[in-house]
Amino acid sequence: MLLTPSAFSQLPGPVLIFGATGQLGSALTRILGEKAIGLTRDNADLSAPESLATVLDQHSPRLVINAAAHTLVDQAEKEEGLAYRLNAEAPGAIARWCARANVPFVHYSTDYVFSGQGVTRWKEDDATGPLNAYGRSKLAGERLVAEAGGRWLIFRVSWVYAETGKNFFTTMLRLGKDRETLSVVTDQYGAPSYAPDLAELSLLALTRALEQEPFPGGVYHLCPTGETTWHGFTSRILDRAREKGLPIKTTRVLPITASEYPTPARRPANSRLDTSKIQKLLKTPLPSWESGLERCLEALQ
């Protein structure tokens, strides 16, 4: 852990967590322990946003966190309506309930709300311009949460991974054990973010926000320090895994451009996020992406 559990002891409970089995949701549920009420698609159907007020009424939470989303970026191109319900209408419905009940609400968004142009780090108030259906749905969700009012925080995160589930880290580790050569995109830049680190830091940011009057609600960029490419991330994953004794077969990671690996959804080339705003709220240094990878690999032991 980056922080001790006492860092979050002042958070009110119960805490209702949507998407409790996802990368962020499972980490949040684990950190909050007995305070957490984890919801999955079996007991909270985000594809039916009109049903969520009833779910919230049943639990009467004192804090709500939405870690659920339609995150299959390429698939969202074919089912943008579903992505919009899950990523926009559902968080909007939750935010309106929270505003009426005066309950703080935390929601996660993405670097994909930006166009990915240029090389500078994106600030929270920079112009958005999503390149794909996923990004458009997440941006619409941000706007509906903001329109609801109340006490809300939106954390835009990037390149999220964990040691379990289906994500870039687990995919590269699996391929690295099977293939001698991998080809990975080298012209997209960002900060790989270990989900448990994001969970801890977002809870600490919420704790800091609740200590302030007025509540400093709004959008915050949250990711580790440093930057790399998908190629650089892959090389680091496999090198460190090999050094830790994992059976890595890959001996070459070849750099390719995004145009050489076409996908249904366009990805931003520049996913660098400026984190100055959240660092002022946290009052603690952000970890590096490399240290997050070390914690992820240690979690495999």
In short:
This protein is of the alpha/beta class. 40% of the residues lie in helices and 15% in strands.
Q: Would you write up a description of this structure?
A:
The protein has ten helices and twelve strands. 47% of the residues are buried. It has a single domain, classed as 3-Layer(aba) Sandwich (Rossmann fold), CATH 3.40.50.720. Helices cover 40% and strands 15% of the residues. The strands form four sheets. It has a six-stranded parallel beta sheet with strand order 2-1-3-4-5-10, sandwiched between helices. The mean pLDDT is 95. With 301 residues, it is an alpha/beta fold. Helix 5 links the parallel strand 4 and strand 5.
- The CATH superfamily is known as NAD(P)-binding Rossmann-like Domain
Q: Give the end-to-end Cα distance, rounded to a whole number of Å.
A: 15 Å
Structural class: alpha/beta
Task: Tell me the series of helices and strands, N- to C-terminal.
Answer: EHEHEHHEHEEHEEEHEEHEHH
What Rg do the Cα atoms give?
19 Å
Mean pLDDT across every amino acid position: 95
CATH topology: Rossmann fold
What is the CATH class designation? Alpha Beta
Q: Could you state the oligomeric state of the chains shown? A: single chain
The amount of beta strand, in percent, is 15-25%
- CATH architectural category: 3-Layer(aba) Sandwich
Detail the topology: elements first, then pairings.
Layout: E1 15-18, H1 23-32, E2 36-39, H2 52-59, E3 63-66, H3 73-76, H4 80-101, E4 105-110, H5 133-148, E5 152-157, E6 160-161, H6 168-178, E7 181-185, E8 189-190, E9 193-194, H7 195-210, E10 218-221, E11 228-229, H8 230-243, E12 252-256, H9 276-282, H10 289-300
Parallel strand pairs: 1-2, 1-3, 3-4, 4-5, 5-10, 6-9, 7-12
Antiparallel strand pairs: 8-11
Helix pairs in contact: 1-7, 4-5, 6-8, 8-10
